[in-house]
Amino acid sequence: MSAHAMAASPTGIASIGLHFPSLSMAVEELAQLRGQDPDKYTIGLGCEEMSICPPDTSVVELATEAARRALDRWGGSADRIGMIAVGTETAVDMSRPLSAWVADHLGLKGAIRSYEVKHACYGGTLAVRQAAEWRMSGAAGDQAALVVAADVAMYEEGDPGEPTQGAGGVAMLIDEPRIARIEPISYPWSEPHFDFWRPVGESYPRVDGQLSLDCYKRAAENCFKAMIGKRDPEAVLHELAAICFHVPFPKMVRKAFYRVGEFLDLNAERIDGFFQEKIYPTMLWNRLCGNAYTASLWISVAQALKGLAAGERVAAFSYGSGFGAELMMLEAGPEAAAGAWEQDVARDLAGRERIDAKGYSELRGAKS
Ligand code: HMG
Q1: Exposed, middle or buried by CB within 10 Å (0-12, 13-18, 19+), for 133?
Q2: Has residue 4 been placed in a domain?
Q3: Among 28, 154, 212, which is best to mutate for testing ligand 1, by the most ligand atoms less than 8 A from CB?
Q4: Could you tell me the distance, in angstroms and rounded to a whole number, from the CA of residue 270 to the centre of ligand 1?
Q5: Atom 27 of ligand 1 has which residue's CA nearest to it?
Q6: Which atom of ligand 1 is the closest one to the Cα of 294?
Q7: Residue 249 is part of a domain; what is its CATH number?
Q8: Boundaries of domain holding 349
Q9: Of these residues, 246, 326, 331, 335, which one is catalytic?
């Protein structure tokens, strides 16, 4: 192979597409159905609304439509796509990857490495890292990767996780860093635990709730500790325009950032200040769609990048049960300011049909 073919390519996010299903329900409706105080869901967990799939929508439609929108915005030629990597934990087949459904619907075939990535909610981030490192290594040449993170998060009826449900898909072209440059160094942390898992053949996850909270917080602490190193923590956090997290439910992010802040010796006032300024605003769309597993972090990143000036930096913390975590650093590019992907959110999230407790029960009945 020539030295030219192995040259590292400037790498980052060149386009973003999002897609959400057409139904939503306020968590207060679920509280009424389950005989719970609505404040437990809205204040205790920080949840607002959940995106819900109608019977004709599955993870295939979420992933495919998000990818279609990202490709339309990218404007590149399909023959430059050398990789399709789809992160999901809503697999529709044990063998055939979700990427094959996406490729089929979008007419993509040829000299393409196409596959599915599984590591609970961390799968989408792994797909992004693999695509980015493929380009950074020089092995991609001038080729781009289509990366998709899509999931439908459903719990058994009456499960404590039910108010955190959601669904959505995010797709990104990993190519020239027009929207954001992906920094080559990232900060992973993993430990093997059964905090949240779904045995083969079962429809809903099993969860050790308290353990899952502890694992998430420990992962965040270790990733931020590695990223900050010996530098002044306040200075490092201060220079970030936004800090994005995987959002299983908004209160989890607050708990995790408190743990990070305490570890860094920040007082409660400073932790609150950073949380309100740099974290809470990034969860605007997450609060409206619920946990979309692999897509959750990237929905937050899409919200955070929108409107940034070139050069502003964003931290992105990914967590997937099992568990694996990684903190990535991004730097806004020239097309972040325009935030073209916001129109997907305006079209889908704002345009959803709201269902009530009765409609939700009927839908669940229809699905079981
Ligand atoms: P729970 O039974 O609702 O827990 O389950 P709780 O009784 O501890 O209540 C939750 C909070 O509401 C508490 O707040 C209560 O005090 C408060 P805290 O003390 O923790 O700050 N509360 C109230 N607040 C106001 N008014 C009231 C009231 N009553 C209680 N009246 C749990 C909560 C998170 C365990 C459950 O929702 C669950 O199992 N969720 C799924 C697991 C999860 O999301 N874990 C998060 C970390 S793991 C992760 O992120 C990975 C994941 O995305 C999957 C993947 O990777 O694939 C989930």
Answers
A1: middle
A2: no
A3: 212
A4: 25
A5: 40
A6: 57
A7: 3.40.47.10
A8: 12-179+342-356
A9: 246
Q: How much is the pLDDT for 350?
A: 86
- Would you state the pLDDT for residue 4? 46
- Please indicate, yes or no, if residue 364 is contained in any of the structural domains: no
Does residue 121 carry a catalytic annotation? yes
What rounded mean pLDDT belongs to the chain? 96
Taking each helix axis as running N to C, give the angle between helix 123-137 and helix 294-305, from 0 to 180 degrees, rounded to the nearest 10: 60
Question: CB–CB of 179/333 below 8 Å?
Answer: yes
pLDDT at res. 1: 42
Shared domain check, 193 and 90: no
116 is catalytic: no
pLDDT of residue 366: 76
- Strand order through the sheet with 353-354: 49-52, 23-26, 353-354
pLDDT at 2: 44
94 CA distance to ligand 1 centroid (A)? 30
In the chain, the number of structural domains is 2
| CA–CA dist 307, 87 (Å, integer) | 26
- Respond yes or no: is residue 53 known to be catalytic: no
Q: What is the mean pLDDT of residues 212-222?
A: 98
Q: Does the residue 337 lie in any domain?
A: no
- Element (DSSP H or E) covering residue 286: helix 284-289
* Domain shared by 141 and 32, yes or no: yes
Q: How far is the CA of 169 from the centre of ligand 1 (A)?
A: 23
8 A C-beta contact, residue 326 and residue 205: no
Q: Kindly tell me if the per-residue pLDDT of 7 is higher than 80.
A: no
* Best residue among 207, 217, 218, 259 to mutate for probing ligand 1, ranked by most atoms within 8 Å of CB: 207
Dump pLDDT digits (tens) for 241-252.
999 999 999 999
Kindly list the protein residues whose Cβ atom lies closer than 6 A to any atom of ligand 1: 37, 39-40, 43-45, 89, 120-121, 160-161, 164, 196, 207, 209, 212-213, 216, 246, 248-249, 252, 291, 293, 319-321
Same domain, 153 and 207: no
Is residue 7, in this structure, part of any structural domain at all? no
Co-location of 169 and 233 in the same domain: no
What 3-state DSSP class applies to 170? strand
